[in-house]
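Hi Prof. W.,

I finally got the COBRA-like protein prediction working! I wasn't sure whether to trim anything, so I left the full sequence exactly as given:
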Amino acid sequence: MNPFYFVVQRSVYMVSTLIFFFLLSSVSPSYGYDPLDPYGNITIKWDLLQSSPDRNDVKVSILNFQLYRHIERPGWRLGWDWTGDEAIWSMQGAEATEQGNCSRFRGGQLPHCCEKKPLIVDLLPGAPYNMQTTNCCKGGVLSSMIQDPTKYAAAFQMNIGAANNSDFTMPENFTLGIPGYSCAKPVQVAPSRYSSDGGRRWTQALGTWNVTCIYSQFLASTSPKCCVSFSAFYNSSIVPCPKCSCSCQGLPGATCVKFGETPSLLQQIKDPNQEPPSLVRCTQHMCPIRVHWHVKQSYKEYWRVKITVNNLNTMKNYSQWNLVALHPNLKSLTQVFSFNYEPLYQYGYINDTGMFWGIQYYNDMLLQEGESGNVQTELLLRKDQGTFTFREGWGFPRRIMFNGDECVMPPPDQYPRLPNTGHGAKFSLSVIFFSLLLLIIMC
Ligand SMILES: *[C@@H]1O[C@H](CO)[C@@H](O)[C@H](O)[C@H]1NC(C)=O
Ligand SMILES: *[C@@H]1O[C@H](CO)[C@@H](O)[C@H](O)[C@H]1NC(C)=O
Ligand SMILES: *[C@@H]1O[C@H](CO)[C@@H](O)[C@H](O)[C@H]1NC(C)=O
Ligand SMILES: *[C@@H]1O[C@H](CO)[C@@H](O)[C@H](O)[C@H]1NC(C)=O
Ligand SMILES: *[C@@H]1O[C@H](CO)[C@@H](O)[C@H](O)[C@H]1NC(C)=O
Ligand SMILES: *[C@@H]1O[C@H](CO)[C@@H](O)[C@H](O)[C@H]1NC(C)=O
Ligand SMILES: *[C@@H]1O[C@H](CO)[C@@H](O)[C@H](O)[C@H]1NC(C)=O
Ligand SMILES: *[C@@H]1O[C@H](CO)[C@@H](O)[C@H](O)[C@H]1NC(C)=O
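And this is what came out:
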């Protein structure tokens, strides 16, 4: 081989690796901004429907405007601070967890909740009809926009009043009760409109406020919750999840269940309002979720990938799970077996990211660790002329997220490699081109 060509090829490869690393670090959604879902938020909408000096009717809606993050059981627990001495007299479609001290309303019927900081939970499915409202009673679960656009919202109504008659004032300090979300101050927006008489007449709220809540993986947890391993038909070595991806065996607080053991009954506390504790199988990565990407087969014009998601959490079933993957060849995805798929392209022209999720009643529940604690799919992708190659780990994903949280990837220099021959430059140039394109878009 021409030595000059070799040097050029090497440096091109190094530069592209650097850019790749830079990209990985710059697209991290850890601080609340997610380039894959730039407008993603959960909006709490507060509509003042009726107002009289002593009583106000309010409708509160919680809308999950996130493309791929959903809210699982035990669900949202909405909280706020009243600015005065308001009490909630009645509530439909949800309930306050505590009634609190209502002694200031002695005599007659007592309010539903007199707490200064009420905490509201959704009713469970099948709640009595007279306690329901439209969109209520899902046990706090909210689907993502892509997975099930009909179940992304929750709503409840309440009647509030103060001991002293006063005008309505908007409460403050909203919280969703889900790790990782922080909510901004309420902002008064154009009043909500409601259609009646089949759309011939519109009524409107007396006032509407929005509270926007944003997710940050870093706020939710400082340690990752999933990792990625690789293999390929052309190389017999399996690249495992990086050691200590989520925690390290032997660290204080890092408990795990050895293979063959069952978790002790003491740890299986069943409180429906609490997130089940995480107790993982002992592995060198200690993650509750492992995603394995196997480059399975090569055909003349197509290639095949198998993705397996393993649940290593011995205490948790993941309902409505989803997986987001970034790979440049996803734009030529031809067929997906046994998962649903939807491309996520927020920038119109790069179509390299997509979301996978389970098929209802078949594999939309990722069961707790054990023989059936996994879901899998195979993808058939068309080899794109000019970019496709098995060299330099091109066949492996650039990013993987499980339930909206970034997974830890093996370092690029460990990717399964083809035995050496010599045409890598084409690949490297395309990576550079691609990386620069992405960089330009991100800045
Ligand atoms: C929240 O999401 C909705 C829907 O995508 C969007 O219209 C709204 O502007 C977002 N709000 C913020 C503050 O980003
Ligand atoms: C909201 O939270 C801030 C900071 O914790 C606190 O100072 C303020 O009093 C709270 N607002 C109300 C109405 O309690
Ligand atoms: C309940 O609230 C009243 C005033 O509204 C107060 O006097 C009383 O001490 C409170 N009781 C408790 C147990 O906090
Ligand atoms: C109610 O109003 C009276 C007088 O208008 C006032 O003295 C009292 O502090 C008020 N109570 C509360 C809880 O704001
Ligand atoms: C307020 O929230 C509603 C969601 O119900 C959204 O349609 C609207 O765009 C939001 N307004 C602002 C100003 O963010
Ligand atoms: C997970 O689902 C299986 C089958 O439906 C059930 O037997 C098991 O108890 C569930 N585990 C948890 C932690 O809910
Ligand atoms: C994006 O990719 C999907 C397959 O992954 C394809 O069905 C869709 O047509 C592509 N869209 C564009 C605009 O290229
Ligand atoms: C498989 O890939 C590894 C890099 O992860 C490399 O060290 C090894 O030489 C490759 N094996 C073969 C047969 O090429």
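The pocket of 2-acetamido-2-deoxy-beta-D-glucopyranose (ligand 5) is lined by residues 43, 45, 63, 189, 210 (CB under 6 Å). Does that look reasonable to you?

Thanks,
D.
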